[in-house]
Amino acid sequence: VAGDGEKDALPHCDLQVYTYTCDVGKRENVYSTAERVRKEVGEVSVLVNNAGVVSGHHLLECPDELIERTMMVNCHAHFWTTKAFLPKMLEMNHGHIVTVASSLGLFSTAGVEDYCASKFGAVGFHESLSHELKAAEKDGIKTTLVCPYLVDTGMFRGCRIRKEIEPFLPPLKPEYCVKQAMRAILTDQPMICTPRLMYMVTFMKSILPFEAVVCMYRFLGADKCMYPFIAQRKQATNNNEAKNGI
């Protein structure tokens, strides 16, 4: 343990990092990039699906193209990346597939139908794939589902729950989420929700009747928590249109 003012000493390692630009929403791009990775780096043993976008519009105001983009990036991309890298993992019976979903893949809220649908899809894909690996007795391939609460990255800037509840459920720091996810991956944990209160919300949603869930959401201020975020996105869009003379 480092003393006050000391930094943790890390062993010197000659690591090499490779970066590639890839539109994960386009399967041809994913497959061609995966082939480049295999040729230039080698086989991938840990796959982390973390790409995510949000449209920030109410359903009836959202262009169809943005809805399709949300589904392609947040959900469909998981199919393409997994199909690209899973065959070698199966051959070696070794690997780890990590799905970074969201708490909105376990329970939903108003105003972000496309995002919730895409994250529910990602969770369903991950769970089905995990069962398939178990059925095939490929115990060397691990899976971890990561479902964080609101992360302070600016993606959902403006999202607000009930002000009296906010001190108990503030946006999570990205560094905290990464540490929790890494701990879960390194210990082969099948699922990690952050903060732990999300487990309780998910459990309550699964056992309570819908009207009771609505009451719980209203008490937490979670029923319309995305409305300020959507309003900010709409205002920003209008400002850009005005500047561009549209």
UniProtKB/TrEMBL annotation:
<keyword id="KW-1133">Transmembrane helix</keyword>
<dbReference type="InterPro" id="IPR020904">
    <property type="entry name" value="Sc_DH/Rdtase_CS"/>
</dbReference>
<dbReference type="GO" id="GO:0005811">
    <property type="term" value="C:lipid droplet"/>
</dbReference>
<dbReference type="Pfam" id="PF00106">
    <property type="entry name" value="adh_short"/>
</dbReference>
<protein>
    <recommendedName>
        <fullName>NADP-retinol dehydrogenase</fullName>
        <ecNumber>1.1.1.300</ecNumber>
    </recommendedName>
</protein>
<comment type="pathway">
    <text>Cofactor metabolism; retinol metabolism.</text>
</comment>
<dbReference type="InterPro" id="IPR002347">
    <property type="entry name" value="SDR_fam"/>
</dbReference>
<keyword id="KW-0492">Microsome</keyword>
<keyword id="KW-0812">Transmembrane</keyword>
<dbReference type="GO" id="GO:0005789">
    <property type="term" value="C:endoplasmic reticulum membrane"/>
</dbReference>
<dbReference type="InterPro" id="IPR036291">
    <property type="entry name" value="NAD(P)-bd_dom_sf"/>
</dbReference>
<keyword id="KW-0735">Signal-anchor</keyword>
<dbReference type="GO" id="GO:0052650">
    <property type="term" value="F:all-trans-retinol dehydrogenase (NADP+) activity"/>
</dbReference>
<comment type="similarity">
    <text>Belongs to the short-chain dehydrogenases/reductases (SDR) family.</text>
</comment>
<keyword id="KW-0560">Oxidoreductase</keyword>
<keyword id="KW-0521">NADP</keyword>
<keyword id="KW-0256">Endoplasmic reticulum</keyword>
<keyword id="KW-0472">Membrane</keyword>
